[in-house]
Amino acid sequence: MIIDNIKTKYPKIVYLLLSALIFILIAKSYLFFVYVVNFNGEIPNNINFVCVWGFRLFLISLILFIKWDFSEILLLIIGLVITLLTRNSLFLAFFVMGVYCRNNKISNEYLVKNYLFITAIFFLGMILLNAFNILPNGVDVHYRGDSIRNDFGFGNPNSPFLAALPLYAGYIYLRFDKYDIYDRILLLIASFVIYFQTYSRTGLITILAILLFIEIVKRVDIRKNKFATSILTLLPLIITALSFFTAKFLNNNFFNEILSHRPESWDIYIKNIKLFRNPHYYTLRETYPLDNSYIFSFVLYGVIFTILLLALYTYYMRKNLLENNAKIIAICSIFLIYSFGENILFNIGLNFTLILAISSVSFRNFLGPKKSIFQRK
């Protein structure tokens, strides 16, 4: 009753609470870039204290501002179980934010805009601080041939492309219906500017593949093209299979050189996949870096959780295909494709599409007489 009165008196509070939590999550991601990746240290205790307690307080606030029914409670229980199994509280945040957005009728556009604008503030802030040498490049100097690779203060030359992904996704989402030649030129220029500073070949190749994929999504009537519908529906599973195929069959000098020795590392990791989380993951990662969200999930979180996640994305892709919601398909594809070469799929400070997917799930669809989303209309 008290919450209802607050909502009635201050209707914008449901938006402000969500925005505040998103700000905290993005801030924590950038603090990780600066202190852990760049300075090879730890986030200072006083700063980390503010972020941790800010995260907890706003997450609790979101929970209080949800009108819980069977569907919402079941999703919360799933989120709690996954959090306990993975020992990662951010998965609970994914589920709470997804339920919160649907329960309070917060549009996809509002969520996307928040991630776009808040990320833009932090991203441009990092570049300006680096340009004025207030925030220097990382302690480890990276080279491409004889050229020093700029990391813009992110600590790793591959990180600027990674950090910019919400900007690409948000921009494409908002401009999708009016996406024209000027948008294409702008995104290409931005991509090559980042590349010629960082020399991140994997980042550039992936971004160009994403932009090409967007062109295909815009040009093909996905509801009438059975082949396109099947490919897009199964995209999470296809990229997962491609990850394993790359590790086992493309683990050679040519592809290792192109993909910065990722296939070599992936092949080592897939030998350590278990039904549930692998307790030796962090010891393994100290020796071999891993830049693939799918193999990362299979090794760190186990087979059961990863299959659940892939099923959720497959459900969401299919749902939006049947609704002809091409721009949701486009931005989900951006994160799914980029996750082939980076650990981004479970980074709530960067990937907002998992929140969108969870917000679309309602168990009423399974209990009621409605037609299954896996049947054609």
UniProtKB/TrEMBL annotation:
The chain crosses the membrane at residues 12-35, 47-66, 73-95, 115-135, 156-174, 186-214, 226-247, 294-313, 325-341, 347-367. It comes from the Bacteria. Keywords: Membrane, Transmembrane, Transmembrane helix. Coiled coil: none annotated. This is O-antigen ligase like membrane protein.
